[in-house]
Amino acid sequence: MARIHDIVVDCSHPASLARFWAQVLDGYAVAPYDEAELARLRAEGIEDPEDDPTVLVEPVGTGPRLFFQRVPEPKSTKNRVHLDLSCDRLEEELVRLTDLGAQVVQQERRDHGDWALLADPEGNELCLWTFGPTPI
């Protein structure tokens, strides 16, 4: 039976996008660079972790890892897969996420909760929800 190992995000600058997502998600952090990781980078001719073409964001506890990898082409269409995030207070969280670099694309009140579509700093979509009572 297959299990999720990583959720992989193609991007142009993995280090900055990884930091964005580590700040967005509760209980996640950019994986630290130990001497083995720094040696791996140096072997690839990379002296600064900021230029790392592959950056990992790990859960502090359990959960899937997010792996950011550099690709040469820019994002050109709507994501076929995106993350749905939940929060307690939509407006407060929208302010926090936009302060981090997200952009609000659309916002609505729906029968089962408030919803917003956002884009991360590289244009990848994500949804933010405050869920009300479950509809019958």
List the keywords.
alpha/beta, 4-stranded mixed β-sheet, 23% helix
Record field, number of beta strands: 8
Strand content: 25-35%
Number of helices: 3
Measure the end-to-end span. 33 Å
Taken from the alpha-carbon principal axes, the silhouette is elongated
Order the strands across the largest sheet as they lie in space. 1-4-3-2
Uncertain regions: pLDDT < 50 for 5+ in a row?
A: none
Mean pLDDT: 93
Q: How would a crystallographer describe the biggest sheet?
A: 4 strands, mixed
**Content-based structural category:** alpha/beta
Could you estimate the helical fraction of the residues in percent?
Answer: 10-25%
Total domain modules: 2
Give the radius of gyration: 17 Å
